[in-house]
Amino acid sequence: MFSVLRKHLGRLSIRLTFWHALLFLTAALTVLGLTYLVMQERLLTQERDAIQFRLNQYVAEFQEGGLPAVRMRAALRKGREQKAFFLRVANSLNHTIFLRDADDWVEFEPGQLAEKAPAPSVTGGWVTLVSPAGTELLLRFARLPDGTLIEVGRSTYEMRQLLAGFRTATFVVLLIFLPASVGGGAFLASRALRPVQHLTAVAEQIVATASFDARVQSSGSNDELDALVQLFNKMLARIERLVRGMRDSLDNVAHDLRTPMTRLRQKAQTALESAEDIDTTRDALADCVEEAERVMTLLNTLMDIAETEAGLIQFQHVPVDLVELVHSAVDSYSEVAEEKGVVVTDEVQSGLRVSGDAGALRRVFANLLDNAIKFTPAGGRVRITANRVEQSVAIHFADTGSGISPEDLPRIWDRLFRGDKSRSERGLGLGLSFVRAIVESHGGKASVSCELDGGTRATILLPAETVIG
Question: Which carries the bigger pLDDT value, residue 374 or residue 218?
Answer without folding.
Answer: 374
